[in-house]
Amino acid sequence: MKYSGLFYFSMAVLFNTACRPEADQPVDFDPTPFILEVGDFPDPLLPADNPLTVSGVKLGRMLFYEKDLSRDRSQACADCHIQADAFSDIRKLSIGVEGLEGKRQAMPVMNLAWHYNGLFWDGRSPSVRAQSLKPIQDPLEMNETLPGAIAKLQANKKYRDQFIRAFGDDQITPERMGLALEQFMFTMVSNNSKYDRWLRNEVMLTPSEENGRKLFFAEFDPNGIGRGAECFHCHGGHNFTNDEYMNNGLDNDAEITDNGRMMVTNNPGDRAKFKVPSLRNIARSGPYMHDGRFATLEDVIDHYNIGVKNAATVNFILQYNLQPGGLGLTAQEKSDLIAFLHTLTDDDFLTNTAFKKPE
Amino acid sequence: MMYRFLRIGVFLFLLFQGTSCQKTELPITLGYSYPRGFPAMEIPLENQFDPIRIELGKKLFFDPVLSSDSTISCGSCHLPGFAFSDTLKVSLGVKNRMGARNTPSLANVGYQRVLLREGGVPTLEMQVLVPVQEHNEFDSDLLMIAKKISANPVYRELANKAYGRDPDPWVITRAIAAFERSLISGDSDFDKWFYKGNPWYMTASSKRGFQLFTSERLACSQCHSGFLFTNQDYTNNGLYEVYPDSGRIRLTGLDGDRASFKIPSLRNVAVTAPYMHDGSLVTLEEVIEHYVSGGTQHANKSPLIKPIVLNMMERQDLIHFLESLTDQAFLTNSKFNIE
C-alpha cells in the first residue's frame, strides 16, 4: 500500500515523458481549401470573407460537439441538433442547461449554404456565423457568456492548436468561433435522398411515392378535375424552400401568440410569419411548425388539407386551402404525399461520418 | 475672479499638455492597428506606445500591491470581461469602503481628452494617482508603492527596459497609462457593418435602432456622437431634482455646471451596467425609460432631454443597436487579461 503513491508518481512521470514529444510538435497555420461537393445542387453563394478550409471546418465540427460551450459543460450544439434527426430535435421544445424549455422548435441544420435570407424561424440573424453564437448565450439554451466559453476553450490545448491551424494564431475570439461554426455548417449538405437518386434516374419511385410527387408539384384545380396539393409554391426548388417568411394559417388573428417575423422587421404585415423550412429529411425532423405543435406528417397534411385558419397575414397562396372543404385530399392521396415526403430522407446525410462527433 | 484665473491656468496647462502630445500610429510590434473609423491617438511624447511599456503597465494594473493592504488592483474594479468596468453600483475599495461613483469602462480611454466624471484630470498618467490615493479606493501612496515594487527584480528589469530607469512613480504612472491606451475596442458588430462594410453581423433590428439613435426625434447622437459615441462634453440629463453629487461644479465652480457629468462613450454599453454616474439605473431598458420620460426638472438639464414617444418595438430596436456596440473580441482578448 505504501508503494502506491510511488507507483502513481512513476506512472505520471512515464506518461508525462511519453507525451512530451507529441506536445512539442509545432502546429502551423494550414489554409488547405475545403472542396465542397454539392452534386447536382447549384453552387452556393458563400461569403467571400470566410473561405472554407479543412482546418476551419474541422474546428467548426469540434465546436459543434463541444459541451464546454454551455455554462455547466453539459450541452453542445449537437445535443439539440442530432444527426439522426436531421440535426434537429425530436422534442417539441428543446431543454436548455437550466432545465428550461426553448421558445421555438429546434430547426434542422442542413443545406444552410443555400439560405440567403436570414437564419432562425424569424430570420433575426443575418448570417450563420452570427446565428451560431446565439444559442451559446441564450439563457434558455446553453446559458454561457462568450468570455466564459472562450476561457474554457483557451485552457484546452486541442483548441489552441486548432485555432492556429484554422486562423494562424491561438487567439480565440467569438468572431473566429462563429466563422468556424459557419464553415462546418456550410459543409452539411443533404443532396442524396431517394428523390435525388430518382432525379438522376438511378431508382424508381413506388406508385404511391410517384402519385405523392405529382400531388406535391401540382396546383389545386378549383374545377375539381385535376388533383393538386399546392406544396411546391413555397417548398419548391432544390432545397424545398423558397427561403421566405410566411404565415401558413396555423392560428387566426386572435389566437396568435408568437408574432414571429414581425418582431424582427417591425412590420405588422409580417405578424406570425416564419421561415418556410426546407422539407429535406422532413420525415426525420419532426415535430413540426415553429412551435412543434404537430407531432406527425399526418397532422401537417391534415392542417394544409382542411385546417388552415385565416388571419390578416396568411399568404394568398393558401386561398384554396381556406375555402370550405379545403383541398379535399383523400386518405389515399394523403398517404401518397407522406410516402413522397419520405423519399426526401437522405440516409447518407444522416449517417455521414464527416458530420459525426470528432474523436 | 479666482475662478477666472483658475480657468486661465487650466487652459494654459491644457495648451502646454497639448504641445507635448503627438498623433501616433501604432507600431507593428503591437500586433494591431487602429480600427477602421478610429483616428490616430494623441499620446504624450515621453510615453509613446511600446510593447514592453504596455506589458509593464498590464502587470501593474493587475497587481494588488498598489492598494494599501495589497487586497485590490486596478483590475479588481476594471474587469476585462466587462469592458474594464464592473457590475456594481459603486465599487468597493480597501476594507470594503464604498466608492463614490460608478466605475467607468476603460475601453478606448486613450481617446478621452479629459478624465473622471467632472473632467478634472487631463492625462491618463495623472489619473493613475486618483484611485491610488483615494481613501475609498487604494488609500495608498505612490512613493510607498514605488518602494515595494523596486524590491522586485522583475519590475526593475521591465522598468529599465521600458523607460531606462527604476520603477519610480514616474514609471508607474506612465506604464499604467500606456497599458490603458492600448485598450482599444473597435470591432463590434456595428463596426463590422458601419466601418468595415461587412453585411454578415448587424441584424436588421440593430440597424433600425441605429437609425432611431441618430434620428432628430430621439437625438441620442447629439451627445453620444462620433466613433466613441460621445462628444466628451458635460451635461445634466435630468436624473434628479437635487443631486447628492454636485458633479462638474466641484471643478469649475460655475452654477451652470452643477450636477453635470461627463457624457460617457456607449461602446460596450451592454456589458457595463449599471448606468449613470451613480450606477442608479440597472438595465438598458431603465436607461431608455429614463430618456423617454424626459427626466426630472433641473436648472441645468439639457434641452435635448424631453419626453418622447417610443413604442415597444422601437425600444427593442434601440437596445439591439446598443448591444451591437459590444466588441466581444475586446472582452475576451487575452492580451488585456492576466492568465
For the termini of chain B, the CA-CA separation is 53 Å
Order of helices and strands of chain B: HEEHHHHHHHHHHEHEHHH
Helix content of chain A: 25-40%
The overall strand count of chain A is 2
Overall geometric form of chain A: globular
Classify the beta-strand content of chain B into a percent band: under 5%
Outline the structure in words:
The complex is a heterodimer of chains A (359) and B (339). Chain A is mostly helical and 359 residues long. Chain A contains 14 helices and two strands; from the N terminus they run αααααααααβαβαααα. Chain A has helices spanning 4-24, 54-64, 128-132, 134-137, 146-154, 157-167, 174-186, 194-199, 207-216, 262-265, 297-307, 319-322, 331-342, 347-351; strands at 245-246, 274-275. Chain A has a two-stranded antiparallel sheet with strand order 1-2. By secondary structure, chain B is mainly alpha-helical. Chain B is built from 15 helices and four strands. Chain B has helices at 2-19, 51-61, 74-77, 124-127, 129-133, 142-150, 153-163, 169-181, 189-194, 204-214, 220-223, 249-252, 284-293, 312-323, 328-332; strands at residues 21-24, 41-44, 234-235, 261-262. In chain B, the strands form two sheets. A two-stranded antiparallel ribbon of chain B has the order 1-2. In chain B, strands 3-4 form a two-stranded antiparallel sheet. Chain B is globular and about 60 Å long. Chain B starts with a helix and ends in a 7-residue tail after the last helix. Chain A binds chain B through residues 47, 49, 124-127, 129-130, 145-147, 150-151, 154, 171-175, 263-266, and chain B through 80-81, 187, 189, 198-205, 208, 313-314, 316-317, 328-329, 331-334.
How would you summarize this macromolecular structure in one to three sentences?
By secondary structure, chain A is mainly α.
Keywords, please?
heterodimer, A: 359 residues, two-stranded antiparallel ribbon, 14 helices, 1% strand, globular, B: 339 residues, mainly alpha, 4% strand, disordered N terminus
